[in-house]
Amino acid sequence: MTWALLITAFVISTCGLIYELIAGTVASYLLGDSVTQFSTIIGVYLFFMGVGSFLSKYIEKNIILTFVQVELLVGLVGGSSATMLFFMFEYVENFRILLYSLVGIIGVLIGIEIPLLMRILKGQLEFKDLVSKVFTFDYVGALLASLVFPLVLVPYLGLVRSSFLFGIFNVLVAIWTLHLFRKELPWLNSMRTIAFTLVVGLTLGFAFSEKLVKMSESTSYHEHIIYSKSSPYQRIVITGGKRFKLFLNGNLQFNSQDEYRYHEALIHPALGSLPEAKKVLILGGGDGMAAREILKYPQIESITLVDLDPALTNLFSKQKLFVELNQNSLNNPRVKVINKDAFVWLRSCKQKFDLVVVDFPDPSNFSLGKLYTDTFYRQVKKVVTPDSLVVIQSTSPYFARNSFWCVVSTLESVGFKTVPYHAYVPSFGDWGYIIARARAKETGESLSKSDRFQFGHRYPAGLKYVSKDSVASMLDFPADMKPSVKEVNKLNNQSLVHLFEAEWDEYAETF
Length: 511
Hints:
This protein is an alpha/beta fold. It folds into three domains: 2-218, Up-down Bundle (Growth Hormone, Chain: A), CATH 1.20.1250; 223-253, no CATH class; 255-510, 3-Layer(aba) Sandwich (Rossmann fold). It contains 19 helices and eleven strands. The strands form two sheets. Strands 7-6-5-8-9-11-10 form a seven-stranded mixed sheet, sandwiched between helices. Strands 1-2-3-4 form a four-stranded antiparallel sheet. Strand 1 and strand 2 form a beta hairpin. Helix 7 packs antiparallel against helix 8. It is elongated.
């Protein structure tokens, strides 16, 4: 019986940390800024674990029965936590209150578990052995959870199914405890009935989790969801039908109706000025749209595309609807797809490229913000020559004016000459880009008009948006989009993420 109860400590520890990780991940998907979400959730969770441990001292009778009841409650609340959070996000105005309340409830229940288990075991082990063994199994369970969650649960089961699965494990612990102490427990049959009812309910939730996720997400996206998947790196959702939208972690990446404007503006002003360009590097751009535009230039010999998430590149290289949109660019023999973190990959890259396209999502969290830092741009500078160009998508100079010019200042701080420009994309509004060319030294100077390279305007036939006249208009910034800050985004402070969050929050409140 002793070993059976020690294994129980292992299981409940694993379940507890899984619920914490699920809450943090859901919050990151829905609210952004993963560092803030995980930090606050871990803090709240640990605090309420302490509250639960404190409250456990007031439980003086029916210790085993109370432990079973706690396990059943943890299984119910923790098992349904992901579903509740996804559904309530759309309907509850103060979602953070619900989020932290749910984390707090789970924390209190988890905090009660271990003290009760130790009291159940105290008659079977010496105190020193009791403490060491219980906490050993507890910490090993936490290690298992931290490894299994990102490597197995998120990519293969998803958040909702994972929470139901571990809810079942908690209820099974309760059933196992009922079996071990069947001769000592009152209300045995009623507790068994409740436990088996919960197992059935949680199993049904597990079986129908995909439908539950689609129901919850349909309320958030207000459109028919044709594809959704959680990868280890992000939540991928595609809505629509003939015309569709791609969302990553809830943020719109493109609308197929007008994405050509975004991608033509990203690629052609720079590449049309490089008639001798042969080697191109794309950082991000896993949907293959940027590669599609680059392949319109016959002189291009190779495109290296570095995108972190194989789930995204596989989707846009295999599914017919998406392959048609990107014109099968990811399967072109001139395109090499590398699924690695661009921040890490650049450090070991020894090649030089004629054009580098930086097409990452906006810096809405610190994981993305590092890809807009001076440290990252120094790595980019190592893979270009003085004749190469770099082009960066840089959020909206209208809605996020300070963020846009922060990217400009960051590029200039590491020795790039910059040409900011902007284009109107109906789905996004006014959107900003920056063309950069490396200086020999890091001067930190802005690029004067006389220093600007001349746009070549050697554009391929068949473009819908970019032309000599449209590019000329892209260079003009009205007064409400003129330079506003000279702040440099550094890896140790990531000021851009804070600027970006503040500006888009202000916009959301206004509209």
